[in-house]
User: What shape does this take?
Amino acid sequence: MLIVDDHQPFRAVARELLEAAGYVVAGEAADAAEALAAVAAESPDAVLLDVQLPDGDGFTVAKALEAPDGPAVVLISSREADDYGARVASSGARGFIPKSKLSAATFAALLE
Amino acid sequence: MASTAVAPSRGVTRDPVLLLPLVVAAGLAVGWLAVREHVSGPRIAADLALAWSLAAASLVVLERPRWRRPGLLLAATGFALLAADLEWATSHVLWTLGFVLEGLWAAFLVQLVLTFPEGRSWSGVARIAIVGAYTVTLGGQLVAAFVAPDARDVLSLASHPKAAHTVDRAQELAGAALALTVLVLVLQRGRAWRGPTRRTQEPLLLAAAATAVAGLVWLGWVTAADARVSTLETIARAVAVTIPLGIVAGISWSRIRQPQASELVVELRREAATTMRERLARALGDPTLDVAYRLPDARYVDADGRPLELPEGSERALTTVTTGGEEIAVLIHDPALLDDPALVESVRATAALVLENERLAAEVRSQLAEVRRSRGRIVAAADAERRRIERNLHDGAQQRLVTLSVVLGLEASRAHPAVARVLSRAQDEVEDAIAELRELARGIHPTLLRDEGLQPAVEALARRAPWPVTVQSTVRDRLPEAVELAAYFVVSEALTNIVKHASATKASVLLEREPATVRVTVTDDGAGGARIEPESGLAGLRDRLEALDATLSIASEAGQGTTVCAEFPCGS
Assistant: This one.
C-alpha cells in the first residue's frame, strides 16, 4: 500500500500503525505528483490519501486513480468529512477517515 | 485648451481697422481701371459692393480674438474678387494676373467654411477638399494660362484651343465634385453641434450649404451641357455673399440671445432646487456646461464628489473660478462663450461664492466616498487575515495534534492494559482539543465556503444545529468572496442567536438570487422580541454589511418568531 501526506511525522506514524497491523507499505508520497508516479511504479492495492496536498487536492488525485483495476483509495484529513460537503462522495474514493480517528480497525473496515 | 486670459492684440495684421483703407484703395483702383476700360457701371458697382461688404464683415469678425483666421480669410476673399477684375485691364501682364487669380476667391471661401471657427480643418476629408479647391482654382487657371488661345496671355506657351477647352471642363467637373463634398461636410457638421456653438455657427452653415448647392447646380449644368451659362454663374456668386453675411449674423444673433450680466446675477443668486451646474448652463445658454470643483489635493470632482478629468484640446474651453487667489472650480464649457469675455467674467465673479459652498459639499462627498472605499478595503484585509489564520491553525497546531492522537492510539493498542487506559484517556483529551480547534477554525473562515460556495456551507451549518433547519437556495453560481463570507456570517450568527435565545423548534434559511441582489433570510418559530443590540454579533455584522452597501433588518414581534434578512447589491 501507499501513504500520501505532506506531513512527514504523520506518514511515519501511519506507516508504523499499518505495518503493525500486517499491511505492507510499499511507498510514501508527499504531494499529488509523487503520488501518481508512485501508484504507476508500485501498483499498490490501497492508497491512504490526504485531502490537502501542496500541489492540489486529494479529490482530484482520487478521481485520477479511479479505474476498475485501480487501487482502493481511502481519504484522510485533519478536517471532518462535513467540511468538504459532497466532494467526498463524488471523488470515487472508498471512504473517508478523519486523521485523528485513523487506526488499523477503521482502515480495515473501509477496505472490506 | 482655450483660456479666458486673452491679451490685448497689437501689430498691423492684428489691428483689423488697417484693412479698411487697404480694401478701399484696392476697390478704387479697380474702379478706376474699369471706368478707363469702359466696363459697364452695374458690373463695377456689383463687384465693389461685394468686395467691400466682405471687408466690412471681416472687420466685425476680427473683433473676436478667437476668430482671427476666418476674419483674415474673409478679407482675403474680398481682395481676391478685386484681383479677378484685373481681366478688364488692357495691359497683358495685368490681364494674365487677373486670369490666373480668377477663381481664387472661391478657394478662400471653401477654406473659410471648412476651417470655421477655430482655423483648423474639421477633418481629413475637409483638408483634402481645401487643398483640392486651391488646386482646381489657382493650379487649374495656371495650366489654362499655358495653353490659352488668347493674345493677351503672357504666359501662353502654345495656343491650343482644344487643350484649353479640356482644362476648362476638368476644372468644372472637379469644382462640382468639391461643391458636393463641401455640402456633405457642412450637413454632417450641422448635426453635431448644440448650445452656443450651434447658435453662432448655424447661419454660416446654412449659407455655406446654399452656396454649395448653387455651385453644384452651376458647375453640374456646365459640365452636362458643355457650355458656359453666365446666369447660373451670377446666381452662384450672389449666393456666395451669404457666407460673410452668415458669419456676421451668427455673431450678432448669439449676442442678442446671450443674457446680460445683470440678469445673470439675478438668475445665479436665485434660491432654487437646481444645482449650480444647471443654473450656470441655463444662464449662459450652454447645456453642455460642466463644473469641476477643485479639491485641496488638486484633484477635480463633480458636485457629487466623483472624480473628473479636465478635458484637453480646443473642443471645450476652461474658465477658472477663484476666490481670494485660490482656485475653487473650473467651468468646462463651449468655446463660443469666450466670444463675449465680459459675460464669462461676470459669471466668474457672481458664481464664486456659491461655487465655493458647492465645492465644500463636493469635497465632503468625495471624502465620504474615500472612507467607504477604505472601509471596504479594511473588511477585505480582515477577511484575508482570517483566511491566513485558519490556514495556519490547520497546517500547524491541528496537524501536530492529529499526529499525536494517532500515536497515542497506536501505543495504547500495544501497551500493557493499565498503560493503555492512561494513553486512551490522553487520546480522548487530544481529540477534544482537536474538535475545539476545528470549531474555532470554522468560525474564523469556513473551508467549505471557500471551496464549495454559499449553499453547501450553509447546509453544513444547518446540519450542526440542534433542531431541523431547512435550506432553500436559488443561488446557482459562486458570488464575490466578500458577499459569500458576509452572507455566511449572517446565517451563522442568526442560527447561534436562535440556539441561545429563541427557544425555537425549527428554523429555515432562504438564499435568493435576484438579477441585481442576493437576499439571505433566516426565520425561526421561537419567542420573537429580538432586536439588534449594540455590541452584539449582529451589530458587528451590520458594519461588515454596510461596507458592501448591503442592508440588515430584523423583524421579531413577540410570540411571532424572528426573521433576520440581509440584502446585498450584487449584479450577476
Notes: Chain B has 18 helices and nine strands.
